[in-house]
Amino acid sequence: MRDEPTPTVPPQAARAVFLARVITALAQAALLYWLTDALAAPQSWVVHARWVFEPLLLVSAFVPLILIAGLGPARPRVLAVWAGAAAVIVAGLGLHDATREAIAGFSILDRAGPPFPLWVALTGGLFIAHGLVEATAREGRFPPSHASLFDTATRLAVRAVLAGAFTGGFWMLLGLGVGMFHMLAVDWPGRLIWSPGFAFPATTLAVAAAVQATDARMALIAGIRSLVLGLFAWLLPLLVAILAAFLGSLLVLSPAPLWATHAATAILLTAAIGLILLINSAYQDGAAERPTSRFAHWAIIAGAVELAPITGLAIWAIGLRVAQYGWTVDRILATSVIVVVAGVAAGYLSTAVGGAGRLRRIERTNQAMALVVVAVILALFSPVADPGRLMVADQVARLRSGAIPADRFDFAALRLDGARWGAAALSALSHDSSLPDPAIRSSATWALAQTNRSMLERSQTLKPVPNGSATRVKVHPDGRTLPDGFLEAAFGPRSGRAVPVCLRVASGQCDVRFVTLRPGEPEVLVFLDTMIAFVFAREQTGTWTKIGDLTGPLLCPDLRQAFVAGEVDRDPHPWPDLMIGGQRVVITSVPEVCPRPRG
């Protein structure tokens, strides 16, 4: 690989760069401390100004790192313009994320900061953009040459890994010191080190120091990079052989087992991305075109050819899922990755034809797809192609057309992932009297009324009460029956509770008894499962709500027989409740294991 000579930085300039990095790191620490401290405040302004909090948090996390990494290699004017543009873009994406759920109704405590996909996308997008800016500034033209772009990007990657390793080692040593002092019963070092006032500046300064140290040893960075890329290049023939065997097996075997894994898209994309990385590890900046690298030459071509069918299988897999279940946020994000990988595959496939210099097409593909990646990220995390909006439009159209019945439709997904578009769609469905199935309106009303994100997420994983399970519920006394819709309301997905064992196992049985807890009050329903028991009360709206659990020797046969026989009475609690700071605390007695009957 062709390494460009690293210019010698005068000591005075190096000290100025180091001072600028220290100031930037301290400013970043102060901003992050202020923002995270606001979350802990009882009446935090964040609750009412999330549209300010998220952009500030993202800008504070990313823009100082751009300055710290760019100081020295980039010219000050170019770095200032790039940092300003990055701040505007990052703040804009943060503002969109904060306002896309403006009417969704969830508390700030449900998701205090930006979602994980946005963090990942900004990390990757800013890394690519920073490499483009630095390479462009170095060459004075856009787009920069592939050699300059590859050199800049790989240097940035190595420096980032080393800075992360240094910061991790720094905190491991601090943790070791805290543990040693703790053995001496000295706890103040731990309280100091783990406090945000120390942790934030210590971390940002450690990153700045690591970047500064790598600046002074660019030749060493280039050596480490060459060693790592050389080692990874030797993995390319192995992956090529594995994929050749896999693709050959598909020629004689059915792909049905692949689709049955329900993870085919993720597996195939992982293989495709790994193949792209290894191809570039072998090709690097074009040195593989040398006559002495014939083995690498043919390994790269073989990998480039295999990339096309692997990508085609990923397209097939995601297409099957979309045809069955429609678009979801995850499938839209996966498809955006497939679009990028497909573009790379198309460009790399052209290396299979032609004569000398055909591997140069890899360079043109990489240059073009770097811009495509940045554009895709900007589209996905902005109003242009927000996955929540696209998902809601597709799923609601499927529901209205009858492609999916109401009992199989995921209303919780509209509420959780659809953001304000999902809330608006649920509101429209709940008021649409022209819908053929009244269950659509009631389900949309239920989902729209939920403000607890954890309960909605749990309802997505819970299964409905099995059909016919009501026959395994014995109601006491004889002649009484379960209220209409009780089982689904008490144990269905919307309840947030798992279906009891006796309703899931064909041989199981539950016992239910109507009990009057206080004279003159409405009856409650005691539901006794194999190991647990619940108490339900009817609300004024007519729905049954769980009000408590029964504790005691519920597994004892004598207790269950007495419950069935109606030997149920009321007895005052032997211990009074405690009021601590205005909060009621109940003393629960420790029950005996299957105590003998009294008398």
Textual characterization of the structure:
The protein is mainly α and 599 residues long. The protein folds into four domains: 11-227, no CATH class; 234-380, no CATH class; 387-461, no CATH class; 469-569, no CATH class. The chain contains 22 helices and seven strands. It has helices at 11-40, 50-70, 76-99, 116-139, 146-183, 188-193, 196-215, 218-233, 235-252, 256-260, 264-283, 294-325, 329-349, 360-380, 387-401, 411-417, 419-430, 438-449, 453-461, 486-491, 501-504, 557-565; strands at residues 473-476, 510-515, 524-528, 533-538, 544-549, 578-580, 583-585. It has a five-stranded mixed sheet with strand order 1-2-3-4-5. It has a two-stranded antiparallel ribbon with strand order 6-7. α5 (146-183) packs across α7 (196-215) and α13 packs across α15 (387-401). The longest helix is centred in the first third of the chain and has 38 residues, at 146-183.
Compact summary:
This protein is mainly alpha-helical. The chain has four domains: 11-227, no CATH class; 234-380, no CATH class; 387-461, no CATH class; 469-569, no CATH class.
Give the secondary structure arrangement, pairings included:
Elements: H1 11-40, H2 50-70, H3 76-99, H4 116-139, H5 146-183, H6 188-193, H7 196-215, H8 218-233, H9 235-252, H10 256-260, H11 264-283, H12 294-325, H13 329-349, H14 360-380, H15 387-401, H16 411-417, H17 419-430, H18 438-449, H19 453-461, E1 473-476, H20 486-491, H21 501-504, E2 510-515, E3 524-528, E4 533-538, E5 544-549, H22 557-565, E6 578-580, E7 583-585
Parallel strand pairs: 1-2
Antiparallel strand pairs: 2-3, 3-4, 4-5, 6-7
